[in-house]
């Protein structure tokens, strides 16, 4: 695997794998020492920002709090003036609730760090580059703007979880930075544009250090149902760390069983980071110096297990049922809510465009249109025949998707709370007072309406225009 290391232009294409069998604290210190030591990573200000994966409080979805605390302690012991652990959890969540429910906040504070809920900050515009697939401006929380402006003064550490992902194949260091745009600026790009957007973010903010938490690995999608955890989670006992996030992700992807060259956002990030033409060769897995003992590759799959609530009739269109958007996350939510809450179903769930004949209207079942393509195409007929229909607008509007599924499954909102009602209300109140930018789950599902159809049609036309532009550019080359 190390035969062609000289072909890679980066001096940081070195990735270390550390065994955690004797404890994650010791493994963390050994790994940091092999990377030169935490003190060497500190910059002039002595401030360290750590991005964790705190996407949700569902078991196995987030970075292990004990590991995060070990990293915080290591930098505090090395003389860091301040260590800040930051996150902006996924739609449908307040970060404050997730960090509290997972024990992350308590572990970080006990280790001498502080937590920062990025959804509670004002946002600032960030300019992104990446061609027609990338919107030129995205809104990031204020702290990210400060980090970008002070990269020579502050240390930025990325601590993702070792997971496959039903939308992006893997969820590692590069994908972990998808938590930076505010929620409203994620939805529009949760389609075929997602990979380019992830690569573009890495161009404006690249970690000084990435350590993948491989205490265990998720291997079927990214959000395993509790009832399927025995099939989706594999104990691994490894930390995978490096200075180059692309190299570290390549090694992590290979451990999960993927060819990194086939993971679109990793390939695009490697292409973007390559030296100018004639100046060197882009990074490839064979050029990475892997030090330590990586485990045998897992047989990971981005696809969810084919286990869904009985009675849920999934109807994916022949066109643009994007796994990066309306399909990938919504099927994960369908699986988790239906199986973990032991619910049967009696509804049709539509994704994408290019549908054949609609299901019969006399069976009394309801319909759920997920994504603008389905709303624009199927919505008019369902609206005309009076079928009870819920919708989730945009591309991967997870908050509206959860609201619709909860209504269809008759799952009360309180059953989704990860903490006691009083603790949750207190956290929600604090986040609300801070003017959180999170998209919360609506208390009532969104129903199909003429206005929703018109909005969907307008957004589909915008997506059509992007696809046409990309096609013209491809034909030109």
> Which fold does the CATH topology of the largest domain refer to?
Rossmann fold
Largest sheet: 10 strands, mixed
Q: Provide mean pLDDT, rounded.
A: 92
Number of strands: 16
- The oligomerization state is single chain
Structural class label: alpha/beta
In the CATH hierarchy, what is the architecture of the largest domain at level 2? 3-Layer(aba) Sandwich
Q: Tell me the span between the first and last alpha carbons.
A: 34 Å
Structural domains: how many: 2
Brief write-up:
The chain is α/β, with parallel strands linked by helices and 477 residues long. Helices cover 36% and strands 18% of the residues. It is built from 17 helices and 16 strands.
Detailed description of the structure:
There is one protein chain. The protein is globular, with a radius of gyration of 22 Å. With 477 residues, it is an alpha/beta fold. Helices cover 36% and strands 18% of the residues. β15 (366-370), α14 (372-385) and β16 (389-392) form a beta-alpha-beta unit. It has 2 domains: 5-292, LarA, N-terminal domain (Rossmann fold), CATH 3.40.50; 312-411 and 447-465. Strands 1, 2, 3, 4, 7, 8, 9, 10, 11 and 12 form a 10-stranded mixed β-sheet that branches. A 4-stranded parallel β-sheet has the order 13-14-15-16, sandwiched between helices. Mean pLDDT is 92; it is low at 1-9. It is built from 17 helices and 16 strands. The protein starts with 13 loop residues before the first strand and ends with a helix. It has helices at residues 24-34, 38-41, 65-77, 95-101, 104-110, 142-149, 173-176, 184-187, 194-204, 229-232, 245-256, 264-273, 328-340, 372-385, 398-409, 421-433, 450-476; strands at 14-19, 47-52, 82-87, 114-117, 123-127, 137-141, 155-159, 161-165, 169-171, 209-218, 233-242, 289-292, 312-316, 347-351, 366-370, 389-392.
